């Protein structure tokens, strides 16, 4: 996977900042994407388009707060293909996997900056910052989690197994 970074240094970016509760009147991913991150960064969607950003980098304890699955759905629907942070709320981490959104715990997140182009090799466990020519080792996801992500989520993964 290759993409450009959009970074938020704040710690504890919670699910209400990702998708405010006032927009939880529907589970339509496109509607949620329209309002994704708007309380933290009202220009989030415009920035994604301008920068071609597809990889989000955030601070510690990313996705804390309520267990709403709409938060990772909103990020994914807005065009985010992967999230990187030093740590994640456990339920947010699992919700991302469940919808097929790759998520990486990366302690050296200070090495990544907005507009950096990065490439992630999930099977080898390598994060390559193409902008700085630095390579980092990341934890490889177990094969069954990689398969869930490649299936675009747990439901599709289960369907393939059952059918």
Walkthrough of the structure:
This protein is of the alpha/beta class and 163 residues long. The protein has one domain: Aconitase, domain 4 (Alpha-Beta Barrel), CATH 3.20.19.10. Helices cover 33% and strands 20% of the residues. It is built from seven helices and seven strands, in the order E-H-H-H-E-H-E-H-E-E-E-E-H-H. It has helices at 15-18, 29-34, 44-51, 70-77, 90-99, 143-150, 154-162, and strands spanning 2-8, 53-58, 82-85, 103-105, 117-121, 126-129, 134-137. The protein has a seven-stranded mixed sheet with strand order 4-3-2-1-5-6-7. The radius of gyration is 15 Å and the shape is globular. The model has no long low-confidence stretch (mean pLDDT 95).
Features:
single chain, 163 residues, alpha/beta, Aconitase, domain 4, 7-stranded mixed β-sheet, 7 helices, 7 strands, 33% helix, 20% strand
CATH superfamily: Aconitase, domain 4
Q: In terms of per-residue confidence, which ranges show pLDDT below 50 for 5 or more consecutive residues?
A: none
Radius of gyration: 15 Å
Largest β sheet strand count, sense and barrel closure: 7 strands, mixed
- Largest sheet strand order: 4-3-2-1-5-6-7
Domain tally = 1
- In the CATH scheme, the class would be Alpha Beta
């Amino acid at each position: 996977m290759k993409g450009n970074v959009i970074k938020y240094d704040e710690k504890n970016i919670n699910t209400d900042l990702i998708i405010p509760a006032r927009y939880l009147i529907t589970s339509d991913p496109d509607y949620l994407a329209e309002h994704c991150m708007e309380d933290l960064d009202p220009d989030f969607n415009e920035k994604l388009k301008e920068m071609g950003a597809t990889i989000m980098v955030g601070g510690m304890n990313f996705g804390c707060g309520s267990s709403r699955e709409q938060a990772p759905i909103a990020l994914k629907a807005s065009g985010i293909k992967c999230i990187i942070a030093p740590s994640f709320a456990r339920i947010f981490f699992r919700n991302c996997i469940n919808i097929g959104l790759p998520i990486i715990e990366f302690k050296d997140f200070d090495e990544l900056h907005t507009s950096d182009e990065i490439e992630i090799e999930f099977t080898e466990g390598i994060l390559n910052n193409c902008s700085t020519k630095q390579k980092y080792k990341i934890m490889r996801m177990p094969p069954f989690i990689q398969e869930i992500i490649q299936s675009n989520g747990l439901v599709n993964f289960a369907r393939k197994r059952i059918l």
